[in-house]
Structure formats: C-alpha cells, structure tokens
Amino acid sequence: MSKPPARKRRPRAAPKRRHRLSSGELKTNLVVLAVIIGASLAVLFTRFSLNPPTEPVTRPVTVDAPVAVAPDPAPATRPAARPAARPGPAPTHTTPSVVSTPSVAPTRPAKPTPPPARSPIPTVPSSPPERPRPGKSRGTLIFVFDDAGHNLAQLEPFLRLPFPCTIAVLPGLQYSKDAARAARAAGKEVILHQPMQAINKTMDPGPGAIREGMTPAAIRDQIQKNLAELGPVSGINNHEGSLITADRVAMGVVLDVARESGMYFLDSRTNAKTVAPLVARERGFTIWERAVFLDNIQDRDSIVEAVYTGMKIAERKGAAVMIGHIWSNELAAILTDMYPELASKGFSLSTIARVATDKDLAE
Ligand SMILES: [Zn+2]
Q: By the 8 A CB rule, do 168 and 191 touch?
C-alpha cells in the first residue's frame, strides 16, 4: 500500500495581515475620541449659553471673561452697568463722603475714606477740597484781612490764598487804591476798612477817619470820599473805633450809607459796648459781627487755636467771621496749611457778600 502521495500542501498563503488593535490602543483611541466629542460639545455649549444666537458667531467667547475675573478696577472707572456680575453688598445711595471724616491731627488734612471695595456704585474720586458739597456744610468760615493799603508786599500772600476771603482796605494811604485793585483782580472780596476814633485818643486812626465831634453830614461825606477812592466794594467794617462804634448818631450815619449803597456792615467789635447792633435793629438792617480775632497773639499755635474757636462757632451758629491782619507774618501761610483740613472737615469758606447772596436766592 502505497501511501497516497502526500498532498502537496499548498503553502498557506500568508494570512492577510489584519491589524488588530490591541486593547491598549483601543482604549487610547476611545479616550481621544471621547475627548474630541466632549470638547466639541463644550465649545458649542459655551458659545450658545454665553452668546445669544443673534450675536455674530465670530465674537470670541472669551470676551466677557475679563469682567468676571479682573481685579476690581478703580472706582471711577468701574462700569455701572454690570452690577449683576458682582454679588456684592446691596447698592447704597450714600456715596462715601470726605466731609465727615474725623481727624485728630491739627494741621494735616484728613485722608478721604476709600470707598467700599466691592460697591457697585461708581464713586466720585477724591476731589480737591475747594468746593465742599452743597448742603453738607458744617458751617461757613468767613476770613477777613484788615489793614491793607500800607504796602503791597504784605498783601500779596493773602491774594494767593486758595479760598474766597475778604480784604479790608484802609483809605487815604499810599497803596490804598492799588491794594483794592489788586485784591479785586485776585478775585477777593474788597471792603472799606473805615477808620474810626478809639477811646484812647492817643491812637491815630489814620486818614479818612470818623472822629469825635464830626457832624452827620461830615461823616457821610468822609465815607463817600473813601468809597470813591477804593472803587467798588462790597461792605464796610471799622478800623479801631471803640469810641465811634459806641456813638448812636455816628453809627446811624455809617449804617445808612452802607444800606443806601447796597453794602453790608461788619462790626469788628473793638468795643463790647458797640451800639451797631442796636442801631441796625432800629433800621431793620442786618449787620455782621466779628466772631474771632485770629492774631491777637501772632504765633502759630495761637492762630490755629483761634481758627478752631471759629470752627466751633460756625458749627453752632452757621457761620463765623474771623478777622486777621495782613501784617501778621505767618497768617497767610498758616491758613494755607489749614485749608485742606477745614474743607475735609466739612466747612465751607465764603465771604459775607456771597453768603448774603445765597441767602437771598434761597428765600
Ligand atoms: Zn484795622
């Protein structure tokens, strides 16, 4: 028996090489696919949830992102229209104000209180204290500087004061006209500093004075002459005058001239027995009175103390007239130093004519 020839074994065709993914590769691919699908869905979702479909699709979806994550910008630049993005405290309508900031340092201005960090209300940046907010004043401070007219050098620092104030000019002196003109040019209020005789008759009140024994007509003429010399003024106050301000007839003439010319009268109160208030009442004419002399003692501490006294009076009465003298060497510098503090504590600085005008407008 012969063995059937062994069938030639056809060589097995090399199996078509079918690539079978190993389970590791499969996993990797699935993960990649899942990531791609997930990312696509995420992009689509983000785009349609952040951007209304009406908006151009080219708008980058990240456009709003800085608003949510940006650190708080400066209050003045914070847009008011985005309060919803900030779950901050409930909006308040009282913006932080510098006027009530307490300060204990006598000469340093109080720093404005920074606004609450997350307040959605735009706040006014700290502004120079020239104009305290209307209606919030703790009182009006009225500074009057007497005895201008002797020279211009002493007047000059007062003309540079950064707030409204009044220069009281003596008549008949070498620089009377120039001082009045310079003060007006500097935007200061100008009044006639009318010399009047004092009880101590050895004191010379100077040119253009009202002296004992003058007739009412002579008093009137003298005042008119002084007014003509200085040019337009807003009022009259007395230089010295402890004798004349106690004289009912003389003061009657002074107040009549003031009232007829539409000017105010400021009683410097060089004599506690002044009859000016009585004479004014008889005429139904309102006059002003000096509350404080700033420079009876001319050192810094005393002047600062006098201003504080004036502030207390202004707080109590609404206004305080403080009189100093242009020959006080340091007065202008001290007031310049104190001014930011006065404003930051909520006081307004004004003049009698301005206050009177405001009052008239309010009535
Ligand atoms: Zn004087």
A: yes
pLDDT at residue 153, rounded to an integer: 97
Distance 202 CA to ligand 1 centre (A): 16
Q: Where are the domains of the chain?
A: 139-362
Residues having C-beta closer than 5 Å to ion ligand 1: 146-147, 239
- Nearest alpha-carbon partner for 233 in 184, 182, 176, 194: 184
Structure token digits, residue 132: 């305290």
Cβ neighbours, 10 Å, residue 359 = 10
What is the model's pTM? 0.64
Q: What angle do CA 235, 240, 246 make, to 5 degrees?
A: 85
Please give the distance, rounded to the nearest whole angstrom, from the Cα atom of residue 276 to the centre of ligand 1: 17
Q: pLDDT tens for residues 125-163?
A: 334 444 445 556 899 999 999 999 999 999 999 999 999
To the nearest 10°, the Cα dihedral for 285, 307, 354, 359? -60
Give CA–CA dist 234/36, Å, rounded: 85
Q: Where on the phi/psi map is residue 140: left (φ > 0), alpha (ψ -120 to 50), or beta?
A: beta
Residue 328: count of CB within 10 angstroms of its CB = 20
Distance 157 CA to ligand 1 centre (A): 18
Evaluate whether 182 touches 159 at the Cβ level (below 8 Å). yes
CB atoms within 10 A of CB 357: 13
- Topology annotation, domain 139-362: TIM Barrel (3.20.20)
Tell me the C-alpha distance between 93 and 96, whole Å.
Answer: 9
Residues 196-213: what's their mean pLDDT?
96
